[in-house]
Amino acid sequence: MARKVTTQRKVIMTAIAWALAILIFFPILWTFLTSFKSEADAIASPPQFLFFHWTTENYAEVQSRSNYLSHFMNSVVISFGSTLIGLIIAIPAAWAMAFAPTKRTKDVLMWMLSTKMMPPVGALIPIYLMFRNSGLLDTRTGLVIVLTLINLPIIVWMLYTYFKEIPGEILEAARMDGASLAKEIIYVLTPMAVPGIASTLLLNIILAWNEAFWTLNLTASKAAPLTAFIASYSSPEGLFYAKLSAASTMAIAPILILGWFSQKQLVRGLTFGAVK
Amino acid sequence: MGSITLQKVSKVFGEAKVIPSIDLDIRDGEFVVFVGPSGCGKSTLLRLIAGLEDVSGGKIVIDGRDATEKAPSERGLAMVFQSYALYPHMSVRNNIAFPLKMAGMDKAEIDRKVNDAARVLNLGDYLDRKPRQLSGGQRQRVAIGRAIVRQPSAFLFDEPLSNLDAALRVNMRIEISELHQQLKTTMVYVTHDQVEAMTMADKIVVLNRGNIEQVGSPLELYRSPRNLFVAGFIGSPKMNFIRGQNAAQLNAHTIGIRPEHVLLSTESGDWKGKVTVAEHLGSDTFLHVDVDGIGMVTARSNGDFASKAGDTVYLTPDKTRIHKFNESGLAI
């Protein structure tokens, strides 16, 4: 029997939901608004909400002070590169764990995930030294490698849960039909897992795009992606809220647009295959 | 060609010995049914033949060649799965063409073969649909189509009809039997449904706990079961087993009598009892009778026998149709 919902209850619930959504969205909105204020308006007390002098000078200033496009390209290369390499490694790994599990498969999966539970700062010094000694500091290659490794457990886990949903009999049928292992993966498994692979891809691009700890610590200028670009506006010499906001808006805009257009895939990805 | 020989084939999963050791000969063109209760190892045995599981010991010989170590794709067998296992992202045409494509056949040849198979299975109108747009019966036909196109030396069926409703199951059973007569290719068919086994098989292999209990034609198994297990498994309703004095009189530990070999009467007979449940199917009536001094006995009569629960009836077993078994359950 369906539960009866009174109109009053509905109105209250809707209001609460909207309030929560606005609360969560507010910092982003505020950042966006601040990016169009002068530095004086940005720190004005009481804060000005909409009735201030709108200006785009922060954007011009940010653009002239730093090379947005080069940071943007670094972000693109690092996030797409690390995700693609991660997928190439993770697809066969997840295949093996989903369709040819051994006694230790569950342990291996847990161990992989457990590496994500460790605070990354614990590994910073050894990785920094390894990067310095092998000349990988402040290079795109170095960041692609480190982000591939950082996100690999998540990629494997996501693909593993998607592959688990694919009935093993279909792969066995392919084997009976004469498909080699490679053909089985190319013609049968991958097309069936496309929605799962797509959401894994999207989610990991976003994770890699927003990753700040390693990108900030392992780059200086050449390979610095947009996270480093934002950080460069919160310097010890003094905060420039309006310019910082403009930089942040420019940094998050591309990924926000990508996320907006791929919402459906992302929701599937974030629920880890729980919603069929 | 399609002969399959199993020599001392065994399968162990971890600690569990699923199949201790099986020897079996399947001749070219035979329709062989593996039947047995769930967990008896029949599907495992089929998967061993297919190569989807590795044997733990023994040899599998297909067409005179040792296939024990061969990959599934190299054995020349085709399989139809319980879940149909169609490729959901491919059209019916591409599903059926898949094994031919894997074999590297040229496109014109593939088209011709796919169209032939579609004609045989009445799938012509559905070739461009996706599996999800088909009914259960049509999906099963596509799965069969995918199996027949590449002319395998034998077909393996793993409970192919158990996902279909009762009426469709009867139709598909007949279709598969007709297909066998038409193609004359060896078929190995796994089912837990003894009606399927009885109606389709040239040869039935009754399995229990990974062992073969008996191999024979359907009527051989029905008429002369080798032991209590086969006697109880083949035939529906199940054979009545009677122990004690009645069995001892015939120098047996247990005697068995099928429900259809017990004559029912409301007036007189060897045994007297009270009806506990009466099942009227129209064509037949099954009475479950609590017989004095013996216990529950099931008897079958024609549909006109109008007894109901609580009535007193008389039962007379057909003496010539009594099966006798010794202490270890073997037929005497």
Automatic annotation (TrEMBL), chain A:
<keyword id="KW-1003">Cell membrane</keyword>
<feature type="transmembrane region" description="Helical">
    <location>
        <begin position="184"/>
        <end position="209"/>
    </location>
</feature>
<feature type="transmembrane region" description="Helical">
    <location>
        <begin position="143"/>
        <end position="163"/>
    </location>
</feature>
<feature type="transmembrane region" description="Helical">
    <location>
        <begin position="108"/>
        <end position="131"/>
    </location>
</feature>
<keyword id="KW-0472">Membrane</keyword>
<keyword id="KW-1133">Transmembrane helix</keyword>
<dbReference type="Pfam" id="PF00528">
    <property type="entry name" value="BPD_transp_1"/>
</dbReference>
<comment type="similarity">
    <text>Belongs to the binding-protein-dependent transport system permease family.</text>
</comment>
<dbReference type="InterPro" id="IPR035906">
    <property type="entry name" value="MetI-like_sf"/>
</dbReference>
<dbReference type="InterPro" id="IPR050901">
    <property type="entry name" value="BP-dep_ABC_trans_perm"/>
</dbReference>
<protein>
    <submittedName>
        <fullName>Sorbitol/mannitol transport system permease protein</fullName>
    </submittedName>
</protein>
<feature type="transmembrane region" description="Helical">
    <location>
        <begin position="12"/>
        <end position="33"/>
    </location>
</feature>
<feature type="transmembrane region" description="Helical">
    <location>
        <begin position="76"/>
        <end position="96"/>
    </location>
</feature>
<keyword id="KW-0812">Transmembrane</keyword>
<dbReference type="InterPro" id="IPR000515">
    <property type="entry name" value="MetI-like"/>
</dbReference>
<feature type="transmembrane region" description="Helical">
    <location>
        <begin position="240"/>
        <end position="261"/>
    </location>
</feature>
<keyword id="KW-0813">Transport</keyword>
<feature type="domain" description="ABC transmembrane type-1">
    <location>
        <begin position="72"/>
        <end position="262"/>
    </location>
</feature>
